[in-house]
Design goal:
globular; 95 residues
C-alpha cells in the first residue's frame, strides 16, 4: 500500500522570515505576475486561510478565489496579505 501524498507547499521547507522574504522577492521579480500570486497563496495556506482571512478582514471564500491564479488580485488585497504575513520585499534592489 502506498503512502498518502500531500500537496507540495514550498513554505514547508522555508524556516525563517528572511528566507520567506527572499523567496517572495524572487517570485515578485519574476516576469509572470502569477508566480507571486501563487506563492502568496502557498504562504496564506501555510498560515491557515481562515486565520489570515480573519486577521485581514477578507472573506475566506474570496481569498481562495483571489489566490487561485485565475484572477488578478487588487493591490489593496495583496497589501493587506503582505502586512498580515509580515512580508518585507524591500531588502534587495530589483533585478
Amino acid at each position: 500500500m502506498g503512502e498518502k501524498t500531500h500537496p507540495y507547499n514550498p513554505f514547508d521547507f522555508i524556516e525563517t522570515q528572511e528566507e520567506i522574504n527572499d523567496f517572495m522577492l524572487d517570485c515578485f521579480n519574476d516576469e509572470d505576475p502569477r508566480v507571486f500570486v501563487e506563492a502568496l497563496g502557498f504562504l496564506v495556506k501555510k498560515h491557515g486561510v481562515s486565520d489570515v482571512a480573519e486577521a485581514t478582514g477578507l472573506n475566506r471564500e474570496n481569498l481562495y478565489r483571489t489566490l487561485s491564479g485565475k484572477s488578478s488580485p487588487k493591490w489593496d488585497t495583496v497589501h493587506k496579505l503582505m502586512k498580515c504575513l509580515n512580508l518585507n520585499l524591500g531588502t534587495k534592489a530589483f533585478a
